[in-house]
Design a protein that fits this description.
Distance between the termini: 22 Å
Low-confidence stretches: 32-42
Helix content: 25-40%
Shape: globular
Number of helices: 3
Mean pLDDT: 75
CATH topology of the largest domain: Trna Endonuclease, Chain: A, domain 1
Number of strands: 4
Strand order of the largest sheet: 1-2-3-4
Number of domains: 2
C-alpha cells in the first residue's frame, strides 16, 4: 500500500498537479480512498516500438477498475469479463450468490453531456444488465 501511495503521489508531482482534497493522508497506517486517478502514456514505450494502449483504452480500464473497487468495497463478488462479452465488463454477485448482474462500464475522461455506446446497446435488454457511468 505504501509503495502504491508513493507512486500515486509521484505521478501527481511529475504532472505538476496537487492531490485531490479527499486524498490527504493524516495517518499512514489508515486506508485512503481515491475518487480520481491520473494516467499518462509513457513516451518511451512508443519510441521502443512496443504496442501501447490508446488513451481511450486507458480511460476505459480506469473506469472499469474504479467500479470494480467500489463494488468490492460494498461486499460484492466480481470478475472482469474477457473482451468477447458483448454487453458486460463485469460479472457481479452478492456473497450468497442469490443475485447476479452484468455490469457495462462507460467512462469519460472529461465531463460531457452524453455517453458513447455501441449500436447494439438499444437491442440488448435484461433485468440484470446494469450500466455504470464514470466521469474521471
Amino acid at each position: 500500500m505504501r509503495d502504491a501511495l508513493a507512486a500515486v503521489i509521484e505521478t501527481y508531482e511529475d504532472l505538476g498537479r496537487s492531490l485531490p482534497q479527499n486524498a490527504v493522508v493524516v495517518d499512514t497506517s489508515s486506508l485512503v480512498w481515491f475518487e480520481m486517478l491520473v494516467t499518462t502514456l509513457r513516451k518511451s514505450s512508443r519510441d521502443e516500438g512496443q504496442r501501447v494502449a490508446s488513451k481511450q483504452q486507458f480511460t476505459g480500464m480506469v473506469g472499469l477498475y474504479l467500479v470494480a473497487a467500489e463494488l468490492s468495497r460494498r461486499n460484492f463478488i466480481l470478475s472482469p469479463t474477457s473482451r468477447s462479452a458483448e454487453a458486460a465488463d463485469l460479472l457481479v454477485t452478492d456473497p450468497m450468490c442469490k443475485h447476479t448482474y452484468a455490469v457495462q462500464v462507460k467512462t469519460n475522461a472529461q465531463t460531457f453531456s452524453f455517453w458513447l455506446t455501441g449500436p447494439s446497446t438499444s437491442q440488448i435488454k435484461s433485468d440484470t444488465l446494469i450500466y455504470a457511468f464514470v466521469n474521471l
